Amino acid sequence: MAGIDRRVAAHFDWMLVALALALSAVGVLSVMSASYAGDKELMGPLVEHQILWVGIGTVLMFAVAMADYRTLSTYAYPLYLLTVVLLVAAAIIGHSAGGSRRWINLGAIKLEPSELAKIAIVLVLARHMRGEVPRGGWRLHQMIVPVLLLAIPVGLVLKQPDLGTALVLILVTATLVFVGGINWRIATAVALVALLAAPFGWHFLKPYQRERLVSFLNPHADPLGTGYHIIQSEIAIGAGGPWGKGLLQGTQARLNFLPEQTTDFIFSVYAEEFGFAGSLVLLGLYSAIVARGAWVARHARDRFGSLLAAGVVAILFWEASINIGMASGILPVVGIPLPMVSYGGSSLIAMMAGVGLLIGVSSRRHVF
Fold first, then answer.
1. Mean pLDDT across the stretch 66-76?
2. pTM (predicted TM-score)
3. Number of structural domains, the chain?
4. From CA 335, how far away is CA 342, in angstroms rounded?
């Protein structure tokens, strides 16, 4: 980059910056609450790591925002291939934890390629569909390439196994294909086929994944086993009441009743301490960043930028919706982080880079 375009700086989208930093701040507080053991040590290792990742993510967000997003179309396929290679590497030499092999140990950080795959699939699909939509919309044969581009990372992610990330990749692709201009009749037919074929997917699930789906329907059938996560999460959210118990005053996380409290169920920690009112604030932040992102996608100056913005918004929307629904007991537990709030470097940094793409598309509306 030869220099900073003054027109980009003049129209820099500070609203998206503020929303991303606000969500990150909520994440730091929530990780602090979830990891606090009742002693005087507030800044434990998890909190220090989260703050470090917020710093790295913020720098990357500004760097991506200032770069010309149109140049990414040239590197979309190489970045996609790199992500596939990293997914393969994770399957072969990756670090295993909790029954999944999905991390590559780099010493200071454990890289999770599946988080990069979310951004990579958005880039490569935006690159593929950036041309003009055929009259009447994309036909079925024109969807073969997007399906193949999706199938490779989804297959590798399911092998880890990581059903949650695979689900997000599918939903983000479906969103982009829909926004990209698929024929309505074909979209309806594909949706019906997918709905009818869903029961057959039961046979491809791991035993613990089947147990999670069954426990979602009746968690009290096995309250100390498969239903434990949902029951404890609902107790934590309900215990928050209208205004919450206050920062560091939650008992579900403090007494270790709540599982995966820094990652999958961090919303439950937050809801117990900040209550219904605080939950509305968090939902408002997500709604605001999704709405702003949708506005950016609608007003982008080119089709590639519009699809890029729509893809990032889809990641934010689906991950936040599924995670909060999962913690609230209205959706099955599938293991999806709360964007920019859950503990984890790969997820946080990748999502901040995604917001940087949104800012870049927004800031260049007046440049081209």
1. 90
2. 0.92
3. 1
4. 11
